[in-house]
Amino acid sequence: MKRIVYLLLVSVLVLSCKTEEKKDEKNELTVYTHRHYESDQELFKEFEEESGIQLNIVNASADELIQKMSLEGAESPADVLITVDAGRLYRAKSKDLLQSFSSEMIDSIVPSHLRDEDKQWVSLTKRARVIAYAKDRVDSTQLSTYENLTSEDWDDKILVRSSSNIYNQSLLASIIANKGNEFAENWAQGVVENMARDPKGNDRDQVKAVANGEGDLAIVNTYYIGKLLNSSDKDEVDAGNSVSIFFPNQNTTGTHVNVSGIGVAKHASNKENAIQFIEFLLEEKAQNIFAGSNYEYPVNPNVEPADILKSWGDFKEDELSLNELGKNNKEAVIIFDKVGWK
Ligand SMILES: [Fe+2]
Question: Which CATH topology does 127-256+317-339 take?
Fold first, then answer.
């Protein structure tokens, strides 16, 4: 009995210390982030100086962070979660790891298709999944849509990374949402049949393979082209220069875009700070840094993209609600397995 009383006392003490701790955390914000870009360090420092709020940054892959938040439960120190794909934000939301938040500023800046329908997360930057084609072997008039990639013209010509990658899963999820499962499956099958090689490497490696003549078309996110062209490695610059960018589906659904985004953690102890941080990241100053250093499209419409992105011209984006990418992710993975997209 004594022992039980003692244990109870200890837990009460521990709990009250915890509450104390949480109260003291007013000037802190714990950021779980999967973004792997230098621009973010600059932004984090800037925010700390401007707000006086100290950031605790936890960096890992989105899957690891989501897993960590699940295991930590109500004890999780996470206040916000940043991922580089809407599909992962959707996953965090469906695991009940996020909570709704509201901000008039955010609602007025970010278009509704780039926000969660339950206001649990919002986009920070956009990236388009485009076709990078060999300048010397392909004429842009031969290109039109993602659907056209299954044409016999591209037999053995397509380079694309593995289906385990969320960028491809989200692209297929968008096709499922726009055209249905059966169409999506035939499309994925057709792309597999036209692949120049088994998928390997990241988006940059696909462009390098086009430069080496292994294939003619690479499916890639726009910012990787910006990075290649601005690399300190001459081979990367050459690879970037060997291709031109084509925005598919301009006369139909629009080019598939994905986002990096941020959600407020369900057990955030610093929700106000979290909202302040998100607003900071969407203001023109921060959006300019995102745009300038990582070649992503800003979501704030008052901010212009980097010169190199501007040089590719404006494009029509698919305005499918990003929620659909999450909802159709599972089906996309099933289809990829079925058609043997490695
Ligand atoms: Fe990436």
Answer: D-Maltodextrin-Binding Protein; domain 2 (3.40.190)
In tens, the pLDDT along 293-331 reads: 889 999 999 999 999 999 999 999 999 999 999 999 999
Do residues 132 and 225 lie in contact, with contact meaning Cβ atoms separated by under 8 Å?
Answer: yes
Distance CA 238, CA 204 (A): 12
Residues 202, 292: Cα–Cα separation, whole Å: 22
CATH superfamily of 27-126+259-310: Periplasmic binding protein-like II (3.40.190.10)
Q: Which two structure tokens, joined as six digits, stand for 77?
A: 């120190």
pLDDT at 6 over 50: yes
Q: Find the Cα–Cα–Cα–Cα dihedral 76, 324, 103, 300, rounded to 10°.
A: 110
pTM of the model: 0.86
| Ligand 1 centroid distance, CA of 119 (Å) | 24
Give the pLDDT confidence score for residue 16 in this predicted structure: 44
Please report which confidence band the pLDDT of residue 17 belongs to, taking 50, 70 and 90 as the band edges: very low
Give the model confidence (pLDDT) of 213-238 as tens digits. Answer: 999 999 999 999 999 999 999 999 99
Q: Ligand 1 centre and the CA of 271: distance in Å?
A: 28
Cα(22) to centroid(ligand 1), Å: 34
Task: With a cut of 50, say whether residue 21 has pLDDT above it.
Answer: no
- How close is the Cα of 222 to the center of ligand 1, in Å? 10
d(CA 261, CA 278): 10
How far does the centroid of ligand 1 lie from the alpha carbon of residue 223, in Å?
8
**Reduced 3-state DSSP string for 216-249:** CEEEEEHHHHHHHHCCCCHHHHHHHHCEEEECCC
Ligand 1 mean position, distance from CA 73 (Å): 28
CATH 3.40.190.10 in the chain is located at 27-126+259-310, 127-256+317-339
